[in-house]
């Protein structure tokens, strides 16, 4: 706590209007003057002591798990967090270009909705948006600047010809989704104008503020406020020790792994401190055993941004991260039990039905109440802008082997609710009701809220708003 000094009293001595008197003051007058001076000296001291008592009471509240006055009162200029996305290509069977742009728009609105700029959000942190755009996707990135993103056009920092490991060099181009181009996400570490960078995929939405994570990263670990913030972190393994200097928060892709094997990093979400020395290594084993030959391989993305960060933070920079509860953060609604695909091997009968984290008492993310979820990654439950309303093992449908259909309908609705909120604000501030034309679809209206006219990507109705309208929204809604 900052040291508080008692205020020094200021006295202004004025001569009587009639000039100085030669008459000696009486004893009573001298006593009254001394009492007045004593009162003037004691009053500021009493005010100062009262302030100290209140401050200490605030610290006692922190010890009991309540925020202190210093956390309740926001600074004159809120701390600004960098929120970054990466756009690597303009579209594929998973997303159309219009779908991707709407995804960036709704994601941007969700950042605003969970920040200090939205009264009632409960957050004290401000934000700035960045879009790390691979040069391959430059042509479809123009609207991002109109949405308030600072666009950074980049080539991959890792060229295939520079990779030393022969296996990785010859095979990384096959990796889902983008081969070596996905390493463009590493540029998130270079956004050093902010104390914290949150990087996500574009198919992501913020549902609740993450102030406790930011507080625990920024406040001294041994301060009352810092300890209180750390108690609020929802960890995947609560028994683990939190590092004094948290460099990153991450989640892992357990739903892909065989119980007992190393789980890769889930590359769609990371909270990190920039300006640290990040070493890009190419120490891949020539076999399929992954980075450093240490088991960081054999799953989707392991040759790129699923495997590299897991290896980096586990081996190169151990004890610097906190693994978050994957049902609460980066929520995908995935089946965490070894019951079916992916990587399901029938002869491993002793593992069937086990938690892929290889622990007892796994939380089933397919049943997690959405009121507990901080943010959502639309993967297993499909992209909301693809209007996936069927449950089957066919491409594009919600796969019952890897998730739960009813849960996914709730998850998809959260995105469409956020879009509907944005459309209402667009109509209110611009007076342009044309945006409501994007709500005329009749397919599963209870879930898609008028944004879908049929099942599948072709049934999606994009946000109806011109470039000029979106500029007005950036000025009048998001500022």
Task: Provide the descriptors you would attach to this structure in a database record.
alpha/beta; seven-stranded mixed sheet; two-stranded antiparallel sheet; 11 helices; disordered N terminus
Would you mind describing this structure in some detail?
By secondary structure, this protein is an alpha/beta fold. The chain is built from eleven helices and nine strands. The chain has helices spanning 27-63, 69-72, 97-113, 142-146, 166-171, 211-218, 224-231, 307-316, 405-430, 445-448, 467-476, and strands at 80-87, 126-134, 149-154, 197-200, 204-206, 248-252, 265-272, 321-323, 375-377. A seven-stranded mixed β-sheet has the order 3-2-1-4-7-6-8, with helices on both faces. Helix 4 links the parallel strand 2 and strand 3 (149-154). Helix 9 (405-430) packs across helix 11 (467-476).
Low-confidence stretches: 1-73, 281-287
If helices are DSSP runs of H or I spanning 4 or more residues, what is the number of helices? 11
Number of beta strands: 9
The quaternary organization reads as single chain
Helix content: 25-40%
For the largest beta-sheet, the strand count, sense and barrel status come to: 7 strands, mixed
Tell me the series of helices and strands, N- to C-terminal. Answer: HHEHEHEHEEHHEEHEEHHH
Q: What is the arithmetic mean of pLDDT?
A: 83
Give the neighbour order of strands across the main sheet: 3-2-1-4-7-6-8
Report the portion of residues in β strands: 5-15%
* Backbone CA Rg: 28 Å
Q: End-to-end span in angstroms?
A: 33 Å
| Helix/strand structural class | alpha/beta
Shape field: globular
